User: Fold these one by one.
Assistant:
Number 1:
Amino acid sequence: MNMKATLSSALIACVAVFTSSLQAEEADCLKVANLVKKQIEADADNILKIVEQQTAAHASCSCEIVKSAILTAEADKKLVGQIVATAIEAAPEQMNLVTSCAVAVAPDALAEIRAVLSKLNPKALAKKGNDPAAGAKDLSLIHISEPTRQAEI
């Protein structure tokens, strides 16, 4: 086998492994989101506890957890803010992802989400580029891209 064929085979193997690991992570996050939905349907009074526990245990799935909680509970603006605050406190490194995903499913709660951000991290909110919806009066400008599930504005 020549060098070019060996390199091509190795590259193809790497792509296959990387792709399958991304698909597995996405599938796991969907399972977590479904679990959150079932837990909230069974015990809606403990929604914040459920969000906290699941986000702490599955920080990489924080977007799916927050979206599932908001949609399952049909959360009002105040509850959306509480869900966002709880998720950020459970996984602070996921703050931008959590806020972007919350805005994506509950754009009417933008003021509450910004208020949470200003309380939890006022310096970050003041920096240009850290607000998930800064200047986005038209929230259709917010786009969640795959596979990284990061918000693009």
Number 2:
Amino acid sequence: MCKGGHAPRCTEASSSCNVSRVPVLIRLATYFLVALAASLVLVPLCRHAALVAGIAAQTHRDRWHGRPTPLLGGVAIAVTVLALHVAYLGWAQLPVLLVAAAAMFVLGLVDDLVTLSPATKLVTQIAIASLLVATGSRLSWASSPPVDALLTV
């Protein structure tokens, strides 16, 4: 065991520290592979459902795609991320983040179905991110809490 009993955070170069990191890496690799498999199954299903339902971004002069592009890809990603979060961590782990992620998913789904204006999407995304900051969830990339809050939003 390493200093303080926290093997994953250990900075010692002893063999016991390196061995204790292996289960963490295996667990992370398992999460990645399960998420990859779920996405590989769900994305084509959502694409097919969008094509059948006629939910596609049509071609326009200001779009780069040359043919209609099926929407609803966010459904596959959201289902994968939210389901795996709940399966591996449970509902109680990061509940505010789960709610914010679900709200962003709903925003994207509504945009796929009824096409929201860019301003509406931006304001809603800022509101959701602001709720994260208001509840104490924020990125910790800078040494200044106000800068971290701005980076979060």
Number 3:
Amino acid sequence: MKKFAKNISIYLLIFVLILTAAAFVLTQPFIDDGVESQDGEVVLIVDASASMQSSINSVSRIERATNAALNDARAAMENGDKVSLILASDEATFLLQQVESENAEEIEAAFEKMSEDPLSLVCNGTPDIKGAMALAADICKKVENGARYADFA
């Protein structure tokens, strides 16, 4: 009986760990460093890893991330902030780099292009998250009072 109770405890622990891991996989992390920029800079990073192909209710994670980034970009434009958008795919690249809010058409066009075929943005290998963070850090270094950034995964 003791052996049975011990086995049940181990199986229960494994089950809880699996549930916890599943919760982390299904969540969509958002990183906000909490620094309010005096200079009006917002840097958005969209994760384009293979896991972003998964869907919930027929909407892929990459589509959700793109929509969330667009909403933040629109809010930044309303505040008169500059917007930078980085895609963390096979290689980290700027889709927008310090675009003034007066150029709303350019910002909207970048997101429109991403929305046309969001699954084509997803990389096959490991995304360059480190490179994306380095690009974001470069923007932050240019800003005296810091910048806000978000990673949409």
Number 4:
Amino acid sequence: MHKALAGACLVFSGAAYAVTPGAYSFVERELQPGTDEKTTLRCVSAEQVDANGYLVPQKTLATHPSCQISEDKTSGQARSWTAVCAGGAQYKVTQKNSGKDFELDVKMELSGTEIHTHFKGEALGRACTAGGAASGLTWPVLRSALTRGAMRA
């Protein structure tokens, strides 16, 4: 689970550094003192992954229609984007791919308060199963962090 990320000087290869649909072990860690890691099984569906092996930002924000994506950039094995939402919340998200595994770094800012959450998805090498890693559950986990952040601010 603690695989080193490839150096930034490596050239992106879709086959070598691409998230693929399937079941993932998903670890969420809020980077605040006194918080614990949470591990769950999640599913990444084909519609949640773009042709380059990155999670699709628009799918992340499907339940947040007031958010607009800006500054969407890809470099090597990393993609970063910013979402600005009604009410002033701003989310900065970076995804780093390492093989079929990935990490998401989410920083939420609202009214001078910042909440920083880290997610790590490790491919389990199998398809999603009913009652286990259900389709679409990757995004509610991220949305829950965004919602928690909005409620704290």
